[in-house]
Design brief:
Structural class of chain A: mainly alpha
Strand order of the largest sheet of chain B: 1-28-27-26-25
Distance between the termini of chain B: 37 Å
Number of strands of chain A: 0
Number of helices of chain B: 5
Helix content of chain A: 55-70%
Strand content of chain B: 35-45%
Number of helices of chain A: 7
Mean pLDDT of chain A: 78
Shape of chain B: globular
CATH class of chain A: Mainly Alpha
Largest sheet of chain A: none
Helix content of chain B: 10-25%
Radius of gyration of chain A: 16 Å
Strand content of chain A: under 5%
Radius of gyration of chain B: 22 Å
Structural class of chain B: alpha+beta
Distance between the termini of chain A: 30 Å
Largest interface: A-B, 41 and 43 residues
Order of helices and strands of chain A: HHHHHHH
Low-confidence stretches of chain A: 66-85
Mean pLDDT of chain B: 84
CATH architecture of chain A: Up-down Bundle
CATH superfamily of chain A: PhyR, sigma-like (SL) domain
Oligomer: heterodimer
Number of strands of chain B: 29
CATH topology of chain A: Butyryl-CoA Dehydrogenase, subunit A, domain 3
Chain lengths: ~140, ~375
């Protein structure tokens, strides 16, 4: 039930199918390991998806910072090519990972702006402005 | 917007779900309490476990192994049988009983009484050798052809969909035969060493003796480059063919495709390399090394992947480059490590599973069918 959304969220932030699979899988495992600390009165999905999105943002930032050097641990599997980008995916790829994340959390994971703010540790105003800017940019591209 | 985002296709979504389920189900099973059974079987199980624990603790090597397993992977996490592989593809395993193919779901097939084997470039066939025979075998065990050769070893298969070659060594030297078993010829008389095809569409072969490494275009016969080396070496190409790794027990050197040395690393006395492989689809190198009391697996110039008491034997990357298997004879285990080092699965009783008195070797982890 939670897997398709977790994978989709990770993919839309990273734009790399392999990384998205790893992130979603590792997030599930992290969630399983931390189940004892989880407050079972709260819904599981948002908790899991929050882990996924934060990991996806971290991964995307790290990839941007990496410069390819010989024999370095920073060398990684080449990102999967985007076979059929489609207008939305191509437009999304032009946003920063932080802006992508708020769009994905709002429209794929259906978080409220308040929930996004809490999950990402941001002021609510920042979330709203990122969302507005992202939608403006996407509107312009689409 | 929601509809647009939901309609974007994710490459390999279904397969990703299958793979994740295989990994997550193991993690979930470990969390679930064991179903309550009658007392006597439980007492018997506890007694056997205590005896095994006692046997492991009272002997010094046993204690070292036990402590290290706990530290690295946790005794509880070692699976008694190979249930599934965490990445797509099939493993080729050589044991005393012969060569086996292991599917992703963990099912195993004994191909026959072969000593050594390697995958064809697309994983459709296996080049397998017995004492005096080279054979092309399908993964279901059907034999396509055989060639009688004395003391045959080290089969390596390369090529394209339309044209393939197998390089191998026998008592006469380094030989080449076409993928259909025809046109067998001697390339280097008297050769004794390791060999590896460059993974490109042309037939470029690297081979190493105790004195030098050479890279040669087999079709034109042209020697592309040669460099001195010393001692028994093994060689591996990166999957893009842009780098060649030459490893002895004490040194590792990396060359580019023109033979320029790009990097080298040496070990202190008392330590030795036992395995090193380029990550599939990348130029990152995973290394397994044995020290006086423990072994280490790590990414060259990078993160640690795991340590264990005693000796590691070798390692192999999964075809997608996201997992690797580290073979650990001291503990009779395979350790499956995610490339990030953050996830480790262990499989125990490896020798028994492959009906072997000696510890089985992983000969390759090849392409998904």
């Amino acid at each position: 039930m939670h897997w398709p959304r977790a994978l989709r969220a990770a993919y839309l932030v990273t734009h790399d199918a392999g990384a998205a699979e790893d992130i979603a899988q590792e997030s599930f495992l992290a969630a399983i390991r931390a189940l004892d600390r989880f407050d079972r009165r709260r819904p599981f999905g948002p908790w899991l998806h929050r882990i996924v999105v934060n990991r996806a943002i971290d991964w995307t930032r790290a990839r941007r910072l990496r410069s390819e050097v010989e024999l370095s641990e920073s060398l990684d599997v080449a990102p999967d090519p985007i076979d059929s980008p489609g207008d939305t995916l191509a437009a999304l790829s032009k946003l920063s990972p932080e802006h992508r994340a708020v769009v994905v959390m709002r429209y794929v994971l259906e978080f409220t702006p308040g929930e996004i703010a809490e999950a990402l540790g941001l002021p609510r105003g920042t979330v709203n402005s990122r969302l507005r800017r992202a939608l403006d940019a996407l509107g312009g591209e689409l | 917007m929601r509809r647009e985002l939901d309609s974007i296709e994710i490459p390999g979504e279904h397969e990703a779900r299958e793979r994740t389920w295989a990994v997550v189900s193991v993690a979930l099973a470990e969390r679930e309490p064991t179903p309550r059974q009658s007392h006597w079987p439980r007492i018997a199980v506890i007694a056997v476990a205590l005896l095994a624990l006692l046997a492991a603790v009272v002997t010094p090597p046993g204690r070292a192994v036990l402590d290290e397993i706990r530290e690295v992977v946790g005794v509880e996490r070692a699976q008694p049988a190979l249930f599934s592989l965490p990445a797509p593809g099939q493993l080729l395993v050589a044991s005393d009983s012969g060569v086996w193919v292991v599917q992703q779901n963990g099912s195993k097939r004994l191909l026959g009484d072969y000593r050594e084997a390697s995958w064809s470039p697309f994983g459709r066939f296996i080049a397998a050798v017995s004492e005096n025979e080279l054979a092309a075998v399908e993964p279901n065990g059907d034999v396509r052809w055989t060639l009688a050769r004395p003391g045959v070893r080290s089969p390596r298969w390369a090529g394209t969909e339309a044209d393939t070659r197998i390089a191998y060594v026998d008592r006469t030297g380094l030989r080449i035969v076409a993928g259909d078993g025809t046109g067998d010829r001697l390339l280097i008389p008297g050769f004794r060493g390791d060999l590896a095809w460059k993974p490109t569409n042309s037939f470029v072969l690297a081979f190493v003796t105790s004195r030098e490494v050479r890279v040669r275009d087999v079709q034109s016969g042209r020697l592309l480059w040669r460099r001195p080396t010393s001692g028994q070496s093994s060689i591996h190409w990166s999957t893009d063919g842009g780098r060649l790794l030459v490893r002895t027990e004490g040194t590792m050197r990396v060359y580019d495709e023109r033979g320029r040395r790009l990097a080298s690393e040496s070990l202190q006395e008392g330590r030795r390399y036992v395995g090193a492989r380029f990550r599939s689809g990348a130029r990152e190198i995973a290394v397994a090394r044995v020290g006086p009391s423990e072994s280490r697996a790590y990414i060259l110039n990078g993160r640690q992947l795991g340590t264990g008491a005693g000796s590691f034997q070798d390692l192999e990357w999964s075809p997608n480059g996201r997992w690797l298997v580290v073979t650990w004879p001291t503990a009779d285990q395979w350790i499956l490590v995610r490339a990030s080092g953050r996830e480790i699965l262990a499989v125990s009783n490896v020798s028994e599973q492959f009906r072997s008195r000696t510890f089985p070797r992983v000969e390759g982890w090849c392409c998904a069918p």
